[in-house]
Amino acid sequence: MEVILRLWKAAVMQFIKELKGLAKFRWDVVWLPLGPISGAGVCIYVEYLLNVSSEEVRKLRGYMYAYKAR
TM segments (predicted)? Predict the structure, then answer.
């Protein structure tokens, strides 16, 4: 996952460097390809956080049940 993010960051930086050469900077040119991909990245990150937190909840429930069983 980190490798993909690094490659994507490098590609975006290269894209921005190439856009600097243009006389007129247009945000819609950048937003149209990057907007949906950024949204997908945020969704993937939120899903990852939910998975991590659900694992922590499962672990804590196991501790609670083990403590009550004593």
Answer: 29-50
Distance, in Å, from the CA atom of 42 to the CA atom of 40, rounded to the nearest integer, reads 5
CA–CA separation, 23 and 56 (whole Å): 52
Measure the CA–CA gap between 34 and 40, rounded to whole angstroms. 10
53 in Cβ contact with 45 (< 8 Å): no
Task: Name the CA dihedral angle for 18, 20, 25, 28, rounded to a multiple of 10 degrees.
Answer: 40
Location of structure tokens 């991590």: 52
Chain centre to alpha carbon of residue 40:
8
DSSP helix/strand/coil, 23: coil
